[in-house]
Design a protein that fits this description.
Length: 362
């Protein structure tokens, strides 16, 4: 007699918790390998049409992939060259920035000492100690970050070339993982994933372009130095959902505070960026970016924070497209469709939820 074995609920919860813990731990410790690999997969989907174009005009597959990878490297290097040239000009204000912050810190310490009747020397000693620890941690973090960037820049082109070259092998491997009756669903998931990533990145590019123009134009009108550099950096930081808007306004505020004698420039920067963020949140994101990725705002905030906790800033960038891919997979698996619905942005106007309580007579 065949008896069906059922795993108790608490055992399922324990197994799922162990699997999630193992997955997150692997993602944290393997970030130097996993992050370039994920970025390479996303870029491969974006660059695949260019490879197909070169192959249609009669070029060899290896040559087509090589040209595409080299062109992408040249474009990225050109962008970094422009930003680095602007950053060298920005570094000229660092001595002035130090003097301004030193003066502001001295005034703040004097105000705290006068207001709360605390010895000014004690406050200054605590401030210098905290400043020294912060600078030490910042320098160590910078060294670690530079090392990770070098690893990513080294592995990313290699991964990108290999993924584009072995594209058919990878697709056939995915097909062989499933039975024949699931081929249609698998093909639909792959097609939807490709469409989502491609449209999301294209929409993100146009949003960054428009935000760069709006930021730079507003800073030029106000009269802030390094307006173009600050506008472009603000548009790049704005890609990070919900957090990027706050980060993008910090740099022009610092420059306005350092280079201008009047606080009215800082106020004008705040007003200008509030208007730009309103345009971005109510017109650009809904019509250009969010229309491609059907993820609700609550889930977006949660996955951005999780991505930042696991992988830092790169994880914040990847959180939205990876969640969109997970949603596509959930939507095609019957047992996981409720979770796909939870990730989506379709909010029911009402719900019919009734509880039936069977009361037994005493």
């Amino acid at each position: 007699m065949n008896t069906e074995f059922k795993i108790p609920f608490y055992a399922k919860v324990a197994l799922i918790s162990i699997c999630v813990f193992a997955l997150v731990t692997s993602m944290i410790f393997g970030r130097e390998i996993i992050l370039p690999l994920i970025y390479a997969f996303i870029l491969a989907i974006l660059l695949n049409p260019i490879v197909n174009f070169f192959m249609r005009i009669g070029l060899n597959k290896i040559i087509s992939i090589s040209i595409t990878v080299v062109l992408s490297i040249v474009v990225v290097a050109f962008i970094f060259y422009i930003l680095s040239s602007q950053m060298s000009m920005f570094s000229e204000t660092l001595p002035q920035l130090k003097l301004k912050f030193a003066s502001a810190s001295k005034d703040a310490i004097h105000w705290i000492s006068t207001k709360f009747k605390i010895d000014e020397q004690k406050i200054n000693a605590k401030y210098q100690e905290a400043r020294g620890e912060a600078m030490s941690n910042f320098a160590q973090g910078k060294l670690n970050q530079v090392g990770r960037v070098i690893i990513v820049c080294t592995l990313l082109p290699v991964y990108l070339f290999m993924i584009l070259y072995y594209k058919t092998l990878l697709l056939e491997f995915i097909r062989k993982l499933f039975r024949a009756e699931h081929y249609a669903s698998v093909s639909e998931v792959l097609t939807s994933t490709k469409t989502i990533i491609h449209s999301y990145l294209v929409g993100l590019f146009f949003e960054m372009l428009i935000m760069s123009v709006l930021n730079s134009a507003s800073l030029l009108i106000i009269g802030i130095d390094y307006a173009i550099l600050l506008g472009v950096l603000g548009a790049i930081l704005n890609v990070i959902p919900f957090i990027g808007g706050v980060l993008s306004i910090s740099l022009p505020l610092i420059i306005a505070f350092v280079t201008k004698d009047s606080y009215s420039y800082s106020v004008m920067v705040i007003v200008a960026y509030i208007v730009i963020q309103f345009i971005d949140n109510h017109y650009l994101v809904p019509n250009i970016v969010a229309s491609r990725v059907k993820i609700n705002a609550l889930i977006s905030i949660i996955v951005v924070l999780i991505g930042g906790a696991i992988w830092g800033v790169p994880g914040m960038f990847l959180s939205i497209p990876l969640t969109a891919i997970i949603k596509v997979i959930f939507d095609h698996i019957d047992s996981l469709k409720p979770w796909g619905f939870l990730l989506g942005n379709v909010v029911p106007t009402s719900t019919k939820l009734s509880f039936v309580i069977n009361k037994k007579p005493v």
